[in-house]
Amino acid sequence: MPVTYVIRFHIRPRQRDRFMTLLEGVLDAMRHEPMFRNAVLHADPGNKNHMMLYETWEDHADVLEVQLKRPYREAWHEALPDLLESPRDISIWQPVREDRAA
Questions:
Q1: CATH number assigned to the domain covering 3-93
Q2: Separation between Cα atoms, residue 75 and residue 19, nearest integer Å
Q3: Looking at residue 100, what is its pLDDT?
Q4: Rounded to whole angstroms, what are the CA distances from 91 to 4, 10, 43?
Q5: pLDDT, tens digit only, all 102 positions of the chain
Q6: pLDDT of 1
Q7: C-alpha–C-alpha distance, residues 29 and 88, integer Å
Q8: In which order are the strands placed within the sheet that holds 89-93?
Q9: Residue extents of the structural domains in the chain
Q10: Longest C-alpha distance within the chain, in Å?
Q11: Distances (CA, A) of 47 to 15, 72, 92
């Protein structure tokens, strides 16, 4: 069953460029994973250092057992304590309905 992760980030002001570079590398790589469905990165219009990532995968167990251990994520995960003012806020959701423009 698909699973969606909503992840909120509070980026240190001088770390935004590095945050974006590392995250874009992860996003570029994960889009080629067979269990990946979609991801959307959002910025708070009132504070460019508050961001939210919405990503959906086919299977939660695959994310935990396979995806989080991918080598392309190592530098990203190692850098997070230096990049963020506080730990990520991660919530997990199951899609109920999806609508798209016709």
A1: 3.30.70.100
A2: 11
A3: 86
A4: 8, 15, 17
A5: 899 999 999 999 999 999 999 999 999 999 999 999 999 999 999 999 999 999 999 999 999 999 999 999 999 999 999 999 999 999 999 989 888 898
A6: 87
A7: 21
A8: 36-44, 47-57, 3-10, 89-93
A9: 3-93
A10: 43
A11: 14, 28, 24
CA–CA distance, 100 with 102 (Å, rounded to integer): 6
Structure tokens at 65: 């057992």
> Which amino acid, 81?
P
Task: State the pTM of this model.
Answer: 0.92
- Read off the tokens for 56: 């959906």
By DSSP bridging, strand 3-10 and strand 47-57 are antiparallel
The total number of residues shown for the chain amounts to: 102
Tokens 């995250």 label which residue? Answer: 23
Looking at residue 55, its amino acid is E
Residue 22 DSSP class: H
